[in-house]
Specification:
mainly alpha
Length: 249
C-alpha cells in the first residue's frame, strides 16, 4: 500500500491557514493591541502643532509595533509551546524556520493592518496629512520596525523556555523600551545615554519612521538607522529561531 506524503509547500499552506484561523478566533486580543497606538494618537493631538504630525505618528506606531511583537507574539508562542503544540508540529515535514515563518507571516498581516489604521486615523482625527512619498516610505519603515520587535519577541521566547518567565521578561523589556525611549525623545538623560537610546532598537525605529514620513529630512543618519534596524532584525530572528526549544522543559 503506497502512502502519499504531502509536500512541504502544502503542509506550510495548511499551517498558514490554521494560524490565520487561530488568530481570527483571538481577534479580541488583536484589537486590544491596536488600542495603545490609537490612544497615543488621539491623546497627543495637541502635540501635532508643536512637534509635527510625523512625530506623533512615529511614536504611536512604534508603541503599537512594540506591543504586537514583544507582548502579543512572544506570549502567544510561549503559551502554544507550553500546551505542546510545537511538539506535535515536529511530525510535520517542516523545518523550525518554516514553522516560525508561518507565525511571523500572520503577525506581519496584523502589523500591516495596524499601520493602515494609524495612518487613516491620523488623517481623519488629527488632521495629519503626509505627501504620497511620505506615506509610502512611512509604511516601509514602519513595517521594518515591526520586524525588529517581532524578531526581539522571537529572541525572548527562544532564549527563555518557561511561559511565565517569557511573559514577565517581555513586560519588563516592553516597559523599559517605552519609558526610556519616550524620555530619550525629550533628551532628559546625559548626552552619552541619549546616544545609546537613539541607536537602540526603539530609537532607530522612531528615527526611520519620522524621517520616512518626511522624505526631505532623510539623511545619512537615517540610512544608518535603517541599516541598524535591519541588522537588529536579522540578529534577533536568527538567534531566536536557532535557540528555540520545542518544549518548555
Amino acid at each position: 500500500m503506497q502512502t502519499n506524503i504531502p509536500s512541504a509547500s502544502s503542509v506550510l499552506l495548511s499551517l498558514l491557514r490554521a494560524d490565520f484561523i487561530t488568530q481570527w478566533r483571538n481577534r479580541r486580543a488583536v484589537m486590544m493591541s491596536f488600542i495603545i497606538p490609537m490612544t497615543i494618537l488621539l491623546s497627543w493631538k495637541a502635540l501635532v502643532e508643536k512637534f509635527g504630525g510625523p512625530f506623533v505618528l512615529s511614536n504611536s506606531l512604534t508603541l503599537g509595533l512594540t506591543t504586537i511583537g514583544m507582548m502579543g507574539y512572544s506570549n502567544s508562542i510561549a503559551r502554544d509551546r507550553d500546551k505542546g503544540i510545537f511538539q506535535r508540529l515536529r511530525v510535520a515535514p517542516l523545518s523550525t524556520w518554516a514553522i516560525m515563518v508561518s507565525r511571523l507571516a500572520v503577525q506581519s498581516v496584523i502589523i500591516t493592518a495596524m499601520i493602515i489604521i494609524v495612518f487613516v486615523s491620523g488623517f481623519y482625527f488629527d488632521k495629519i496629512e503626509l505627501k504620497p512619498l511620505g506615506y509610502l516610505l512611512g509604511f516601509f519603515t514602519a513595517f521594518m520596525g515591526g520586524t525588529v520587535f517581532l524578531s526581539l519577541g522571537q529572541a525572548i521566547v527562544g532564549l527563555i523556555k518557561n511561559a511565565e518567565t517569557v511573559s514577565s521578561t517581555s513586560r519588563l523589556v516592553y516597559t523599559a523600551f517605552i519609558l526610556v525611549g519616550m524620555l530619550g525623545e525629550l533628551n532628559v538623560f546625559p548626552a552619552y545615554l541619549n546616544q545609546m537610546i537613539k541607536w537602540s532598537p526603539y530609537g532607530t525605529v522612531v528615527h526611520i519612521l519620522g524621517s520616512g514620513m518626511q522624505p526631505v529630512n532623510w539623511n545619512q543618519q537615517s540610512s544608518l538607522a535603517l541599516l541598524a534596524t535591519m541588522g537588529y532584525a536579522v540578529i534577533f530572528t536568527t538567534g531566536g529561531i536557532k535557540w528555540f526549544s520545542w518544549d518548555s522543559r
